[in-house]
Each structure stands twice: as C-alpha cells, then as structure tokens.
Amino acid sequence: MSTNNVEKEQQCVLHWFQGWSPYQKQEFLKFLLDRAIPQNVDTLFDAMHSLNVCDGPPSIFQCQLKLMGDWFTEWTDKERNILMTWLAGRDPAFVDKFNEEMAKAGQMVQG
Hints:
Order of helices and strands: HHHHHH
Number of strands: 0
Helix content: over 70%
Largest sheet: none
Shape: globular
Number of helices: 6
C-alpha cells in the first residue's frame, strides 16, 4: 500500500477520533488493544457480543471502526506507530492509557 494512501487513512482516523465521545474513545481503545494483544480474553466476549442481531443498521462509529480495522491490518508496525504518535499529540491521556493496558497485559503474560 502506498504511503500516500496510508497517510490519508490515518488522517481520516485522526479526524474521526477528534469527533468521538469519551465512550467511543474507550471503545476505540479496546479495539486497538484487541489488535495489539490477540490473546486478550475479552476479545472473545466482545466478538460474541457483536454477533447479536440488531434491528437497525450499524452506527457511523461502528462503520468507522470496521473501516479502521480493514486499514489497520494492512499497515506496517511503523505505520501503526506513526498513528499512535499522532494520537499522542492529540490526546496524550488516551495513549498513556493504551500503554498502561499494554504493560498490564505484558505482566500477565510474564506472570
């Protein structure tokens, strides 16, 4: 994937992030952690929860996460790190929480 496309995708994510509510940012944090820690037990429960049949169409936020997930799997680790750096510039507390959760997961694995 060309860097130009990745940059555009990351700009979209940053734009969305700035408009998300605190609850949506928390869901995005879980989303990122699920991809960073694939063996996360909560992932299974979240996946099962997402299988529930809904009466209506997905929300814009759900569509954004789906699209972000599609992009994220195509990005290199370097490109993912660039996104986190940009997020840290916009919301340092969000990235601090991400790093804290990653450290906890690392301790549990070493446990």
